[in-house]
Specification:
With about 325 residues, this protein is of the alpha/beta class. It is built from 12 helices and 10 strands. Strand 7, helix 10 and strand 8 form a beta-alpha-beta unit. Helix 10 crosses helix 11.
Length: about 325
């Protein structure tokens, strides 16, 4: 595995994550209450993934099996300036899943004290049904990711895995409910400038992962995060790469000027929703995909194959 020499992450690094609302699970995993989980349990709205794919935001765990990453993307809101190193020992999937579910129940239990809350929705929130394995870091660097996914599924949860595509051998073997792969550059030069990969061969690994996605048995999605002045260019280049993968869905999303990204990019690097719609429309034409949906608040557009089924429950029937 292309990771630094094994060492313990310093307490300072974990303290930093805790101050940002992360709950550390074991030696290297974390879970964090999602803004949309809190809003959903109060009937104040849901995440765009709820609209696109039918996920219940109030029953969704936002977690990662490993806080470290092998990229340092300029648009990332996470504290990539404080890298997390590989642990001396990797926790087993059962412990991680149990810790994440327990933490999620603890997060959501606090909403039970709200006077006018819908008690039925609140009770549902204490029994998570979905795990978004996408909180921070790169999940394919955790060596037991396949077992982690299986453990969530064995407990009746669906899973979304979000990966940067740099470990194709892992992507080939995992079976989440939906497999997301980020594609944040149309060429190697833009990738290096925007994502600052740890190893020079990571672009070639991404190209290999796109090929694997083409025949992957899971439902697949490519996600593009666009930042002005960085990677909003060469729509045809993106299209040719996406054609290699032939994913069920393509999400085009604006960079949001949040968190630590504010130290790296100016606010005007954040595209308007109109910019995302324009880019997506042209990309859909190149791919012969359809514009399936959009959420202006999140500045995101969903493209899909014309025969794609979006909702999780229908997809698993």
């Amino acid at each position: 595995m292309n990771l630094p020499d094994a060492m313990n992450t310093s307490p300072h690094q974990f303290d930093l994550f805790r101050k940002q609302g992360y709950h550390i699970v074991g030696a290297h995993s974390a879970v964090k209450p999602c803004l949309w989980s809190g809003r959903a349990v109060k009937e104040e709205g849901s995440c765009y993934k709820s609209r696109f794919y039918g996920i219940d935001s109030h029953r969704c765990i936002q977690m990662t099996p490993y806080l470290g990453c092998n990229q340092s993307c300029l648009f990332c809101w996470r504290p990539i300036e404080h890298p997390v190193e590989a642990p001396q020992h990797w926790d087993d999937p059962e412990m991680i899943v149990e810790g994440c579910i327990s933490a999620q129940r603890s997060f959501m239990s606090g909403f039970g004290g709200i006077e006018d809350i819908n008690r039925s929705i609140w009770q549902e929130s204490l029994e998570p049904k979905h795990a978004a394995i996408s909180l921070a870091g790169e999940p394919t660097l955790y060596p037991h990711l396949d077992g982690l996914i299986d453990e969530f599924h064995n407990r009746g949860l669906t899973t979304f895995v979000v990966t940067n595509g740099t470990r194709p051998e892992v992507i080939e073997n995992i079976r989440p409910t939906q497999l997301y792969m980020s594609l944040d550059a149309p060429d190697k030069t833009t990738y290096i400038d925007t994502c600052s990969p740890r190893h020079p061969d990571q672009w070639e690994q991404i190209l290999r992962s796109l090929e694997i996605l083409h025949d992957h048995p899971c439902r697949t999605a490519i996600r593009i995060t666009l930042a002005k002045g960085q990677n909003i260019k060469d729509i045809q280049g993106y299209a040719r790469l996406i054609e290699t993968a032939a994913p069920d869905f393509v999400e085009v999303k604006a960079y949001m000027h949040l968190g630590y990204s504010r130290k790296r990019l100016e606010r005007d690097a954040m595209p308007r929703h109109e910019d995302i719609v324009q880019f997506s429309t042209r990309l859909a034409d190149e791919l012969d995909y359809q514009l399936a949906d959009e959420v202006e608040l999140s500045r995101v557009v969903l493209l899909s194959k014309r025969d794609a089924v979006t909702k999780i429950d229908r997809a698993e029937e």
